[in-house]
Design brief:
The protein is an all-alpha fold. It has one domain. Helices cover 57% and strands 0% of the residues. It has three helices and no strands. Helix 2 crosses helix 3. The radius of gyration is 15 Å and the shape is globular.
Protein backbone atom coordinates (compact mmCIF):
# COMPACT_ATOMS: atom_id res chain seq x y z
CA UNK A 1 0.00 0.00 0.00
CA UNK A 2 2.78 2.43 0.85
CA UNK A 3 4.48 1.87 -2.49
CA UNK A 4 1.27 2.92 -4.24
CA UNK A 5 0.80 5.95 -2.02
CA UNK A 6 4.17 7.56 -2.69
CA UNK A 7 3.86 7.76 -6.51
CA UNK A 8 0.31 9.01 -6.07
CA UNK A 9 1.55 11.86 -3.84
CA UNK A 10 4.21 12.75 -6.39
CA UNK A 11 1.69 12.73 -9.23
CA UNK A 12 -0.76 14.86 -7.26
CA UNK A 13 1.91 17.43 -6.40
CA UNK A 14 2.82 18.04 -10.06
CA UNK A 15 -0.74 17.95 -11.41
CA UNK A 16 -1.32 21.75 -11.08
CA UNK A 17 1.96 22.40 -12.87
CA UNK A 18 1.04 20.03 -15.68
CA UNK A 19 -2.40 21.61 -16.07
CA UNK A 20 -0.97 25.14 -16.01
CA UNK A 21 1.87 24.39 -18.40
CA UNK A 22 0.07 25.89 -21.41
CA UNK A 23 -0.85 28.97 -19.38
CA UNK A 24 2.83 29.56 -18.64
CA UNK A 25 4.00 28.93 -22.19
CA UNK A 26 4.47 32.63 -22.78
CA UNK A 27 6.11 33.78 -19.56
CA UNK A 28 7.78 36.67 -21.34
CA UNK A 29 11.40 35.66 -20.96
CA UNK A 30 13.68 32.92 -19.66
CA UNK A 31 14.04 34.93 -16.43
CA UNK A 32 10.26 34.96 -16.09
CA UNK A 33 10.19 31.19 -16.49
CA UNK A 34 12.93 30.79 -13.86
CA UNK A 35 11.08 33.08 -11.44
CA UNK A 36 7.81 31.17 -11.92
CA UNK A 37 9.57 27.86 -11.38
CA UNK A 38 11.27 29.13 -8.22
CA UNK A 39 8.01 30.39 -6.70
CA UNK A 40 6.20 27.19 -7.66
CA UNK A 41 8.95 25.14 -6.03
CA UNK A 42 8.76 27.21 -2.83
CA UNK A 43 4.96 26.88 -2.66
CA UNK A 44 4.94 23.11 -3.20
CA UNK A 45 7.81 22.54 -0.75
CA UNK A 46 5.98 24.61 1.87
CA UNK A 47 2.83 22.53 1.35
CA UNK A 48 4.81 19.30 1.61
CA UNK A 49 6.22 20.46 4.94
CA UNK A 50 2.79 21.36 6.33
CA UNK A 51 3.17 25.13 6.06
CA UNK A 52 0.75 27.69 4.72
CA UNK A 53 2.31 28.71 1.38
CA UNK A 54 0.99 32.26 1.72
CA UNK A 55 2.41 32.74 5.21
CA UNK A 56 5.71 31.09 4.25
CA UNK A 57 6.19 33.33 1.18
CA UNK A 58 5.16 36.37 3.20
CA UNK A 59 7.78 35.48 5.81
CA UNK A 60 10.71 34.82 3.47
CA UNK A 61 9.95 37.65 1.05
CA UNK A 62 9.55 40.06 3.94
CA UNK A 63 12.69 38.93 5.76
CA UNK A 64 15.23 38.02 3.05
CA UNK A 65 15.80 41.51 1.59
CA UNK A 66 17.56 42.49 4.84
CA UNK A 67 19.64 39.31 5.12
CA UNK A 68 23.26 39.30 3.79
CA UNK A 69 22.85 35.88 2.16
CA UNK A 70 25.20 36.69 -0.72
CA UNK A 71 28.05 37.08 1.77
CA UNK A 72 26.86 34.24 4.01
CA UNK A 73 24.90 31.72 1.89
CA UNK A 74 24.60 29.32 4.84
CA UNK A 75 22.05 31.76 6.32
CA UNK A 76 19.56 30.54 3.71
CA UNK A 77 19.36 27.19 5.52
CA UNK A 78 17.39 29.01 8.24
CA UNK A 79 14.68 29.89 5.70
CA UNK A 80 14.09 26.42 4.29
CA UNK A 81 10.59 25.07 4.99
CA UNK A 82 11.89 22.07 6.94
CA UNK A 83 13.99 24.18 9.32
CA UNK A 84 12.75 23.65 12.91
CA UNK A 85 12.32 27.40 13.54
CA UNK A 86 9.97 27.95 10.58
Amino acid sequence: MLTLLVPCLAENSIRPFTIGRKNWLFSGSPKGVAASAAIYSLVETAKTNGLSPHRYLEYILGDLPGVPFRQYPEILDDYLPWHPDI
